[in-house]
Structures are given as C-alpha cells and as structure tokens.
Amino acid sequence: MTEETIILIIVGSVAALLLIGGGIIGATMVIRPKVLLRRRMAQIGVIDGPGQSERVESRRQKRIQEKVKQLASKGEKKGFVEAIGEEILRAGFHISIQVYLFCSLCAGVLMAFFYLMAMNPETLTSTIIGGGAAFLIGLLLLPRLFLRIVAGRRQKHFTKHFAEAIDLIVRGIKSGLPVNECFTVVAREFEPPLGEEFRLLVEGQNLGMTLDELLARGLQRLPTPEYRFFAIVTQIQKQTGGNLADTLSNLSTVLRDRKKLRDKVQALSSEAKSSAMIIGSLPFFVSGFLSLINPEYLMLLFTTSAGNWILYIDAFWLFCGIMVMRQMINFKV
Fold this sequence. Notes:
Elements: H1 3-44, H2 52-55, H3 59-73, H4 80-91, H5 97-118, H6 124-160, H7 162-174, H8 179-189, H9 194-206, H10 211-221, H11 225-240, H12 244-268, H13 270-293, H14 295-303, H15 305-329
Helix pairs in contact: 3-11, 4-6, 5-6, 7-8, 7-12, 8-9, 9-10, 10-11, 11-12, 13-14, 13-15, 14-15
C-alpha cells in the first residue's frame, strides 16, 4: 500500500466523521427544541405525555381504582379455618366450624365403611390404603365440594334477578324515595338470597353501620362480579355525588348485556357439554350392563387385589379426562 493510498484513506475517514458528526449536531439542534417543547407542554397539561393520563385523571376514576384495589386485596389467601368459614358463609349455612368438622368426620367414616362393605381386599395393605383413601375423600373433598356446589347455585340465583332489583331501585329513586327505602322494597319483593342480602343492608344501616362495611360483608357472602360492580358504583356515588338513578340504570344495562352473553356462551357450548356428560357416564352404564349379563366376570374387579388397582387407575384417568373436558367447555364471562 503506497503513501498516497494511506493519505486518501485518512482523508476520507476524517471527511466521513465530519459529515456524520455534523449530521448528528444538526439533528440535535433541530429535534431537541421540539422534544423539550413537547415535554414542557405535557407537564402543564396542554397535550398528553408520559404520566399525563394519571395527572389529568379525574378524582372519580381514582376513587374507582382505589375501591377496586381494596376489594381485590380482600381476596388474598387465608388460612384453612378462615377459608372454610367463608365457604360456609357463601353457601348460606348458619353453622359453626366445629359442626362442619364433625360432619366432615362422619362423612369420612361413612365413606370408609361403604368401601369396606363394597370391596373384598385380599391383603391387609390394600385394605388400609383403600380405607384410608376413602376416609380422606369423605373428610376433605366431599364436604367442601358440597359447599361449593351450594354456593354456586346460590350465586346464580342471586345474579338471575339482580338486574331487575337494580331497575326497581332506579324507579324508586326517580319517584323520590330514599335509597334505603328502595333497598327495603327490594328486600320485601324478592326471595332469598337477593331479598335477604338487601334486608341485611337495611338492617345494618338501621343499626348504625356504614354502607361500605355492609357491602364488604355482602361481597364475602356473594363474591359475584355483578355485586362487586354494584358495591363500587354505590360507594363512589356516595362519596362524589351525582345522579344515582342514571348510574344504576347504566349498571343495569351492563348486567343485562353480561347475562345475554353468558346465555349465548351456554347455548353454544351445550352440545359439547352433552357430549362430555355422555362420555363421562358411559363407563358406569357399561359396568351396570355387564353386571346384569355376567356378574361373575365384573365382580373380579371388586374381589381381587389386581381388580381393585385397575379400578383405582381407571377412576384417576376418568377424573383427569372429565377435568380436561370441563376446562375446554367452561367459559367465564
């Protein structure tokens, strides 16, 4: 490489660096004032900028967010006894934890007794394992499953007529009645749990409790999205004021739209649910049919140790299949 070539490379590199540096400086001189101006305008609220939506957010929206956070924080994980107490409360039973534990113990003993009566294990090990599994299922699984089923039915019955109750409150407010009197009308006209819940609201206010405390307790008994919407709207309206009738009317419209969407989803998934029910019940129908045709062939599953283990494995895989189908066909709205 000659000296002339080296000089040309050096000169070209310096020229390129000068051009690049000049371009960067020129772009900075042109763009930076605009950036600074836009940032300043965002700070004073003329245009939207980073964090501007939070600064110009209304007090009403902030309070709604605070209420949502408060209601969400109340759903944190709790201990075993507190969780059982909440499930009993949601199911609508007025029993103590001691009564529930006694009933669970009785269910466990009955499950173990029925297992020992139905099965004829050949070894002591299979007897202990099967009886212990039946006892644990009756003690831990069945009572809580029963409570959740009852609580789910109770919540569905509450949600079914909740929009009608809100419409009744709206008509009462527009006619000049106080809100507490509207709650009294709903408590009188609707059956439990909807009427009972509003009756508790009225009685609690008559005893001097605040509406926030009563609604928080109501959400513990009925933790449905519809009731949570109602609690948030009522609390915010009480703090900020305004036309409560229009707000509740909009809420009623939202609840009715949710119900329509839920019914539509249920109708679209009804065929899949029917197929799942048929597939899940088919082993039991086949077993019953075989017990009528050839009882000795089927009783080997109950009278031998290998047959018992086959039943355990089949029950496990059947449970897994049912849970998979349940997750595929259940949609939350």
